[in-house]
Amino acid sequence: MDYQEHTYEEKNAAFERLMRVLDELRVKCPWDRKQTNASLRPNTIEETYELCDALMNDDAQDICKELGDVLLHVAFYAKIASEQGRFDMADVCNRLCDKLIFRHPHVFPPNEETAQKASVAIKTEEQVLEQWEKIKQREKDGNTSVLSGVPGHLPTLIKAYRIQDKARGVGFDWEERSQVWEKVKEEIAEFEAEVENMSTDKAEAEFGDVMFSLINAARLYHINPDNALERTNRKFIRRFNFLEARCRDLGKNMADMTLAEMDEIWEEAKRTENPA
């Protein structure tokens, strides 16, 4: 598909079209009319994961489609709120814009003095992030703790990354990122000791520490641990599918094969992905 950037008028028209279509569905469609925040929530989670899959595959057509599905849910929640007299989509957009402007004084300076200071102080991505966290702490949104802004329901791996990133924002971090490796080695040794002691509860706690330290290392070296793990998940699935297919071609049952035989085919799968 040939892509051409739409004008602001065209984008506004498309957004208005979405809202009008949703308004009509809410009145005329029995399913849409019945939906509530609670009934939509599971679907929202599913649509978000489908978008994440599309993003990992870097499929433009699929990303576009899944973004539309997620946008529909955002608009739907705003529509429900407007029917309840609480807020509408304009409030959602304006509140977001206000927050973005407030948290980017180096881009949208409230006055000339701020503009001059920002032009000198804010030069790097790291400085932007530090400023972002400081501004968030000044906002009166009920978050009295640095870590209170981390949603409790986040997936555990992502939550660990966000906790560490929040702590970094107020200076609680390694002076040199290479220092993290001593912590990783320390946590692995403690985990191994508890495994040797056959203490399941303590081993689980220490394994959590190992994972937390590895996520910290990933953060320090600008690696997204969730993306990294998903890449490995997909790689394992791809190679295991190759193993299954090769076994079928050879007329063998995997359950009857030795580990050495399966490893030989596994190495073949790796060679097909990374030919010499």
What structural class do the secondary elements suggest? mainly alpha
Q: What separation lies between the terminal Cα atoms?
A: 35 Å
SSE run = HHHHHHHHHHHH
Shape verdict: extended
Gyration radius (Cα, Å) is 25 Å
The amount of helix comes to over 70%
Number of helices: 12
Task: State mean pLDDT (0 to 100 scale).
Answer: 89
Count of distinct strands: 0
Sheet with the most strands, sense and barrel status: none
List the keywords.
276 residues; mainly alpha
Any overview of this molecule?
The protein has helices at residues 8-28, 30-34, 37-57, 60-83, 89-103, 112-121, 125-138, 156-169, 180-196, 200-220, 225-249, 259-273. With 276 residues, it is mainly alpha-helical. The two termini are 35 Å apart. The mean pLDDT is 89.
Q: Quick summary of this structure?
A:
The protein is mostly helical and 276 residues long.
How are the elements arranged and paired?
Layout: H1 8-28, H2 30-34, H3 37-57, H4 60-83, H5 89-103, H6 112-121, H7 125-138, H8 156-169, H9 180-196, H10 200-220, H11 225-249, H12 259-273
